[in-house]
Amino acid sequence: MKKLAAATSLLLVTACGLPLSGGVQKPGPVPAEQRQGGDIQVLPPAPRDDAPPDQVVRDFFGAQSSPGDAHASAREFLAPGFRAGWHDDGPVSVLGSVPDVVPLDGTATTFRVRVSGTFVGQIAPDGSYVPEAGPIDQLVQLRKGARGRWQITDVPDGLLLSRADRERSFRARNIYFLAPPSSPGSEPSHVVPDQVFMPVTAGSADALVRRLLAGPSQTLGDSVGTAFPTETKVRSVRTEASGLVTVDLTQQVRRASAQLRDQMLAQLVWTLKALEGFSELRLLGEGRPLGEEGDDLLRDRDDLRQYDPDGLVARAPLYYIGGRRLRLLEPAAGPTSAASSRQVVDIAAVSPRGGSLALITYVRGGAELKTGPPSGPFAVRARATTLAYPTWGSGEKGLWFLRNRRLTLAPLAGGTVDVPVDGIGRFGPISGVRVSRDGVRVGIIAGIGTKRRLLVGRVVERDGRLRVAGLRSVAPGVADVGDLSWDSATSLVVLGRASGVTAPVRVSVDGSSVALVNRLGLEQSSVRTIAAAPLLPLVVGAVVGDGPALFRDNGGQYVPEPGVVGEQPFYPG
After folding, report:
1. What is the widest separation between alpha-carbon atoms in the chain?
2. Phi/psi zone of residue 16: left (φ > 0), alpha (ψ -120 to 50 degrees), beta?
3. Cβ within 8 Å of residue 413, ≥6 positions away
4. Residues 6+ apart with CB under 8 A from 281
């Protein structure tokens, strides 16, 4: 009970949809999926002969924070004949508050206890996190056993964990699948991370490879593919002290083409990078090498970088709009030219792959969108009353943007098409959109005024037409969202109101982590836009007095860019 109560402050924040487990966090280069606090060990309570039934139930749920030996500590509270029948791999509910444990009725030898409360998220059997609230109502039965100790004889499968216990018991892992081909007949050009939660006891190469072969989670579904042939199974996974991981798969992989084998290697290498000490991969089929003429298929952990889901150069350029012209802040090299710098522009975007430009200009009666290479020419792709939020994503499908608050795609060739967003009606009109740089996920701002919230969906192709499916609210506790940007393939940063302040907030793609980040230096400004990219500092566009200014996070606070008068900073994407 003491351990559960100690987490109350965290849980109350989680119930509001904003789990700020570490207070105000600085925006750093560490991806959201790696910011886990699972190395802290908490000793679970042990059964006591004199504990009443309700206390036994409390201690049972408290002991679920210790995942070792298939939750052996929690099983100690179960009657011996019931221990093997309780499944700890059932649904995992993340608690919104300390649950109520109320004795109901009983006799001298049997008792019933009701457990009730709310959960704010669940880890599904496939490891995906679902940030949805719901009720908890469980009936637990007990009987007196040896030495008069109350023991549990019936309790639902699965786990009830506080947020702190979830972080101790599970790790967010990225399992990599293939992005859909950019066009019929083409090959996938990069991988896409599927963030799933795996028990801390399943952190081996073997567990990651088996999870990869199980296929994508429900949050990605048919938006991604895999190179592994149907029915492929794991024969063995061996890890040597040198960091070499040898993966031996069943005979199906021996029939795969050289291109598919390369893609399998990419999925494996990118997935195994999460393991400290992993240095090299060897892929076998039925115990034999898969390379040409029986050679080993070996790949270093730093090979196959061309499959990077973000597709950015090592230090991506930062752009902004100044004097209605596209400006390049740094580094000096970037996809601009005299032709592009002469264009009058009010909103812009640059593709992460290929450097194509999108330029929106306000004109009489509305706005005009042009696209083209940096050297020109620029073709008019759309005119409308309002045009906003140009976003390339991977750039392989074309340019996404909002036209009169409707999501629209300007393909690389051909006319523009509206893209349906399934389920958007229950959230309100769209006011902002950014497609992830892997081209698969879509961050959307929907709602009116202070009710604007962050949603995340995924791009799917059905019946030959693209649409956004799987829409869900991932940060319900962050209100009045004004802008958004992807800082990794599994994390966004938004400008929104949380804990009483308007500030940058980092949100994992599944809503499992929501945290305020550094705001120092912005107190006297009105923040309007934000730019984020992997391993690069956040840059904020703000208004100070009557003029626009750019602020860059230097690791401790936001500092103004000296001599720069501009707005709407952005990285390629």
Report:
1. 88
2. alpha
3. none
4. 244, 245, 246, 247, 265, 268, 269, 272, 298, 299, 300, 301
pLDDT at 366 over 80: yes
CB 359 within 8 A of CB 369: yes
List Cα–Cα distances, 309 to 190, 248, 381, 390, in angstroms. Answer: 6, 26, 27, 20
pLDDT at 334: 58
Helix, coil or strand: residue 407:
strand
Residues 294, 298, 304, 307, Cα dihedral to 10°: 70
C-alpha to C-alpha distance for 224 and 545, rounded to whole angstroms: 47
Task: Tell me what percent of the residues of the chain surpass a pLDDT of 70.
Answer: 90
pLDDT tens digit sequence for 373-397: 988 899 999 999 999 999 999 999 9
Average pLDDT, rounded, for the chain = 88
Cα–Cα distance measured from residue 293 to residue 285, given in angstroms and rounded to the nearest whole number = 14
> Peptide bond before 331: cis, by omega within 30 degrees of 0?
yes
Smallest CA-to-CA distance from 439 within 511, 353, 512 is with 353
Tell which residue, 7, 184, 26, has the closest CA to residue 515.
Answer: 26
Whether the per-residue pLDDT at 228 is higher than 60: the answer is: yes
Residue with tokens 């959201």: 32
CA angle 543-544-545, nearest 5°? 115
In this structure, the dihedral spanned by the alpha carbons of residues 197, 199, 204 and 209, taken in order and rounded to 10 degrees, is -40
The dihedral built from the CA positions of residue 514, 515, 516 and 518, taken in this order, carries a sign that is negative
Over range 525-539, report the average pLDDT.
Answer: 93
Read off the pLDDT of each residue in 138-150 and give the average, rounded to a whole number. 94
Decide yes or no: CATH 2.130.10.120 for domain 318-570: yes
Q: Can you tell me the distance from the alpha carbon of 283 to that of 287, in angstroms, rounded to the nearest whole number?
A: 9
Residue 521 backbone zone (phi > 0: left; psi -120 to 50: alpha; other: beta): left
* Residue extents of the structural domains in the chain: 2-170, 318-570
The answer to whether the 2-170 and 318-570 domains have the same CATH topology is: no
Rounded distance between C-alpha atoms, residue 151 and residue 75, angstroms? 10
Any residues with CB less than 8 A from the CB of 493 and at least 6 apart, and which?
27, 484, 485, 487, 504, 505, 506, 507, 517, 530, 532, 538
- CATH code, 2-170: 3.10.450
pLDDT digits (tens, 9 = 90+) for 461-495: 998 899 999 999 999 999 999 999 999 999 999 99
CA angle 68, 74, 79 (to 5 degrees): 130
Q: What is the pTM of this model?
A: 0.88
- Can you tell me the mean pLDDT for 281-310? 89
Nearest to 122 by CA among 131, 135, 111, 113: 131
